[in-house]
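Quarterly update from the structural biology core.
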Amino acid sequence: MSSKLPSKAKCVVIGAGIVGNGMVYHLAKLGWKDIVQIDKGPLPNPGGSTGHASNFIFPVDHSKEMTAITAESMRQYKEFGTFTESGGIEVARTPERMQELARRITSAKSWGVDGGRIISPEEVKKLVPYIDETVILGGYYQPTVGVVDSLRTGTLMREKAAEMGAAQSFANVEVQDITTENGRVKAVVTDQGTIEADYVVIATGCWSPKLAAMAGAHIPLTPAVHQMKDIGPVPFFKDTKGDIEWPIIRDMDTFMYERQHGTGLEIGSYAHRPILYNAEDLPSNATATLSPTEFAFTQVDFDIQDEHSYELMPSIVGDENVREKYACNGILSYTPDGMPILGETPEVKGLWSVAAVWIKEGPGTAKSVAEWMVLGDSKIDLHASNIARFHEHHKDDKHVKARVAESFNKTYGIVHPLEQYESNRKVRLSPYYDREAKLGAVFYETAGWERPFWYECNKDLVAKFGDKVMPRTAEWESRWWSPIINAEHLQMRETAGIVDLTAFAYFDITGPSALAVVQKAALRQMDVAIGRVVYTPVLGPNGGFKSDLTIMRLGESHFRVVTGGAHGMADKKWFADLLPEDGSATIKDITSDYTTLGVWGPNARKIVQEVTSADMSNEAFKFSTCKEIDIKGVKVLASRISYVGDLGWEFYVPMADGPALWDALWESGKNHGMIPVGIGVYGTTGRLEKCYRAYGPELETEYTVVEAGMQTPKLKDADFIGKEAHVKHRSEKPAAMLCTLFVDDHTSSTGEKRYMMGNEPILTLDKQPITDSHGRRSYVTSAGSAPSLGKHILMSYLPTELAVAGNKFIVEYLGEHYPCSIAEVGATSVFDPSNERILA
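Predicted structure, tokenized:
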């Protein structure tokens, strides 16, 4: 380490835990020089969460993104010689947990984590002799679980970056300010001098919000307590030679883990009450009793965990000679949605966040963010961790703490894929909310908006359509679902439905260079006639998907982008980053100013025509066009597109005009059988019958436009991000193709019919995982009912040589196997493939 702080650097990395050290190392490996790393604490342990972490890694998560990051981290720990494989077992005390363990096995198979299996209590006992197997029903054994030395790994990374001549590291340097100029980071002001920098990386865990605020940015996380204690010496471990020789146990139903730690046993808890702090509450290194992130242990919060650990391991925990050696309320970073916070901040260019990253993800995250900074994109798709995902209300401390308080005890919980938060709801209400509530809307939340998922007023339709609603009896897939969704779908196909789409994100791009901006972002041709509506993928530099959205040309130099609310702010940043510095194009977020209603179905034209003097005929109002019309005195921007596979329009109006628009359409709809329809139809059943792809499930950076079956016959001449890669993909044989499959038989071993929900592995007929030539496993990207066809649809990428209509496979769901077959390869719809209904 040097002694004098330089006055300039290409990049300043703040933080010297596993994440900060990983950033320095990977930026250096990618060729960056002149990197300066600083931390306010001493090295090698500056006092952050890395210093007191339990350091074990279970490789499986229901999130593909987190599993991939963890796998890359494990690879690096092994490369540095700091990984010890011990095996691990997640044990179950309840039948519900046994089902969840079967679900975790399916996630492991989908994401390529092999070797795991469900084992009996007796098998658990053989692997871990000091457990009382009578209190459990079984376990999920994963032999590749292990522990790491994160401090040693970080030290090696830091040293290697220095050996490359790329980085200098400075301990005991406190950041006092981060300055900006014209929206870009300028310098880091410390107690030992100021460093001007092109890039600043905040890798300071719990302190990240405080540092971001210095620059006027937001990193919405909260420090939270995770209790742990170390007891010993344990007689059973007296001959232990290293850190660990026996499998780690996660007692999932009690939110607890136990792991051998040399001659001791470490017990960690996620069962206690949520104990949340602010970054300002963390003490300095000088005043901290142990370290700034090791608070005094509160035994009263751990009492219940002592009881649970005694039940599971009485021979150790009940031994009076085994005493408490160490205990603390350790501080970790928690975010409002449970995902890390990665990427360049939307508020300040050049200021990057690598926050809320735990030990198991540290090296993999650092590598991915370094790739993003240097190459423009990461090999692993990080869309769920992108800092730009947050809307303004997400950044509010009240929201952050409410969501973390609710989710903390779900760290080891059984969380349903559709489970809704209860805290901090009704933050954003559409102008139709009261009307929808009176109709019995069941509200789900997206980006703070309350959206009807189905309407209880339509419950009589379930009897009308009978078995066509494809009723479910199993509790798991019936949870957060209703047969009313499928009934609404069928009624919309017969008559019409009105859908609240207020949760869309909207932004206008205007100015002389507006066309150049949208051309650069969009795969499709944007130099189109005024009034054209273009659905387009947005690609990253590698030709993979960064988004898919709709762009309307409203004027010569005026384009409106309409995109999903969940990813809307990330899309906004993507376009904003393309704006020219000369100000010849600007972007304006109008998300909170506008609302959208959709009307679709065979009677949609009749309903709309009765309330407008505009000609809504097919000849006068073509598909993929938009125009301003008048509906009962309300000026409306009408766009003729469809995400549900039926004739209809989206109608955009200012919020204040929303109620009048609803009332006009509602009154007209009474004469034509129109019903209110929820997002359960719009986002799932209607979409899947048309085989429409969705960003996230089907469209991500790992797959190409060709593999998704979305390439156009002709490519525009204008340049766009990812064009070079896309041209290459068009000339190559794809490694996989996105296919639509039908489940051929839903009957389980008990005779009950079961319905897949997504992320399940697709297997060969002899029940082996399927891997394409790029090493990607085949799994269900989306699943749901196709009520018009009486089928349950699965979408999945399959190796090209297997992607043949009629080919048969197995889908594994909760430990059982069900036959399925390919209905269509590519983008051809299984419902109305010629689009006669949409184009009517």
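The longest strand covers residues 323-334.
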